[in-house]
Structures are given as C-alpha cells and as structure tokens.
Specification:
Blueprint lengths: L1 E9 L5 E10 L4 E5 L6 H8 L7 E6 L2 E2 L5 H8 L2 E5 L10 H6 L8 H5 L5 H13 L15 H14 L4 E5 L7 H18 L2 E6 L2 H7 L2 E6 L2 E7 L8
Parallel strand pairs: 3-8, 3-9, 6-7, 7-8
Antiparallel strand pairs: 1-2, 1-4, 4-5, 9-10
The structure holds adenosine-5'-diphosphate (ADP) (2 copies).
One adenosine-5'-diphosphate (ADP) binds next to loops.
Keywords: ATP-binding, Cell membrane, Membrane, Nucleotide-binding, Phosphonate transport, Translocase, Transport
Protein name: Phosphonate ABC transporter ATP-binding protein
GO molecular function: ABC-type phosphonate transporter activity; ATP binding; ATP hydrolysis activity
Length: about 240
C-alpha cells in the first residue's frame, strides 16, 4: 500500500509542482494519473520513488516512511519500485540482456555488477522477464537495434527482473504509435493481473486511461481534482 499524505512539492524556483496531495494506492491497483502537461503527473511519480524529495507531507510504502528513510533504507525500498520512462532509458550500445540485468544492480555490490559477474539466478530471471514480455529471442541483440515498442518491453522486463512490486511508468507510450501503444499497455495490464504488481502510469489521454485503469487520479495545476473508479471519471481532465 502506498499512502500519500499532504504531499507538497515546491521547486527551488518557487513553482508548486504538487499541492497537498492525499491518496492511498493499494497493492495490485492499476492507477492511471491523468492531467494536461504541467499538471504535476511526473512530479508525483518522481516523488513516489524519491527521485526528488517532496517539500512537505509524507509518503509511506507498506508501513515504511519513504520520506524519512535513510540511505540504506531508501536503497532497500527502491528494490520494490521499478521505473519506466517515455524514452525507455536503456543503454543503447548494450545488449538487451545486459539492460535487463541492470534491474538487478540493487541486489549486488557495485564491483560485481560493473564487472558483469551476474549469478546464474539473475541471468535466469532476466531471460524469464524477456519471455514474459514476448521477446525471448532478442536477448543478445543491441538495444538500439530494436523498435520503440520492443525497447519499451525491454524496460518492462528490466522492472520484472528487479522483482519490483510497484511499477511507475512516466508517459510510457507517449513516443509510440497507436498500435504499439496498445501492445505495451496490454503488457502492463497482463503483468498487473498475472503478478499483482501495482501499476501507476502517467498518461495524456483519458481514452486509454479508461480502457486500462481500475482507478484514475486526475491532477490539475498540482492539485488532485479526481480520485476514483474509471466509471466516475469525466472527460475534462
Ligand atoms: P529541485 O527543487 O527538486 O532541486 P530544481 O529546482 O533544482 O529541482 O530543478 C532541477 C532543474 O530543472 C533545474 O536546472 C531547473 O532549472 C530545471 N527546471 C526549471 N524549470 C523547469 C520546468 N518547468 N520543467 C523542467 N525542468 C525545469
Ligand atoms: P506533468 O508531468 O503533468 O506534465 P510536471 O510534474 O512535469 O507536470 O510539472 C508540474 C509543474 O512543475 C509544472 O509547472 C512544471 O513546469 C514544474 N516543474 C517541473 N519540473 C520542474 C523543475 N525541475 N523545476 C521547476 N519547475 C518544475
């Protein structure tokens, strides 16, 4: 469970990214955060992984305060949280397998991962993850030789290899065509349903949100303007 309590983010230039957001997300939810550009979607997502700090309020994940976590606690909490970005964030020149294995870095010493000394169990996890997203045959291909949709699948596989319990996806389909968009969203839904991984996905488009979400959070100017089941969401968010 993720509890977001009075979360406020004021950037150092004075911009209010989030204003006293309160919400609770249950394990296994498929939440889509909608809102226009600048609404605060990405600010909220980055706060849930503490890629940046909120300036007020608190975020608690499974009973542990993310906001108050020290360095070691934060590293442990982050193992449970996978991230997916619009631009995939892959290391282009590395193989797909190596990119997926990078989801395992939080479990090993830096030296070991730098040298690429992955235990067989990790390699097996990486292959399983590629299997689950339907590209088992791409393991030894360079990441930048794949199509956009395939690259996004690699980043989903990376989160799976990480054994994340929560996946945060910041505009994961914004650079994909409509057909590929559906394929990637279908993957996320399947993973949510089969593995019970909580999905929190930022999207521009309310129609895609309606189709995939079990719950919608609407943001406008850093304020929470909607929080509820898909059926109750209106079109003007
Ligand atoms: P924080 O308050 O979390 O430390 P900063 O204010 O340091 O974040 O911003 C990080 C960087 O993003 C700065 O270089 C800042 O200039 C830049 N930035 C400023 N305005 C925006 C904006 N509207 N969108 C994205 N980045 C911005
Ligand atoms: P969205 O993801 O919904 O497009 P953001 O969370 O990126 O919205 O931005 C929310 C608000 O915070 C906007 O006004 C944006 O310009 C501002 N903002 C985002 N990042 C920064 C930053 N690093 N520094 C200053 N302002 C920022």
């Amino acid at each position: 469970m993720i509890e977001i309590k009075e979360a406020t983010k004021v950037y150092s230039n004075g911009t209010v990214g989030l204003n006293k957001i309160n919400t609770t997300i249950k394990q296994g939810d498929f939440v889509v955060i909608v809102g226009r550009s600048g609404a605060g979607k990405s600010t909220l997502l980055r706060a849930i992984n503490r890629l940046h700090d909120i300036t007020d309020g608190e975020i608690v994940i499974n009973g542990k305060s993310l906001t108050k976590a020290n360095g070691k606690q934060l590293r442990e909490m982050r193992r449970d949280i996978g991230m997916i970005f619009q631009n995939f964030n892959l290391i282009k020149r590395n193989t797909v397998l190596k990119n997926v294995l990078s989801g395992r870095v939080a479990y090993h010493s830096t030296m070991r991962t730098l040298l690429g000394l992955w235990p067989k169990a990790d390699v097996d996890l990486a292959h399983d993850a590629l299997n689950r997203v339907g590209i088992p045959d791409k393991a030894y291909v360079r990441a930048d030789e794949l199509s956009g949709g395939q690259q996004q699948r690699v980043s989903i596989a990376r989160a799976l290899a990480q054994e994340a319990k929560i996946i945060l996806a910041d505009e994961p389909v914004a650079s994909l065509d409509p057909l590929t968009t559906r394929q990637v969203m279908d993957d996320l839904r399947r993973i949510n349903q089969e593995l019970g991984i909580t999905m929190i996905v930022n999207l521009h488009f309310i129609d895609i949100a309606r189709e995939y979400a079990t719950r919608i959070i609407g943001l406008r100017d850093g304020e929470l303007v909607f929080d509820g089941p898909v059926e109750d969401a209106t079109d003007e968010m």
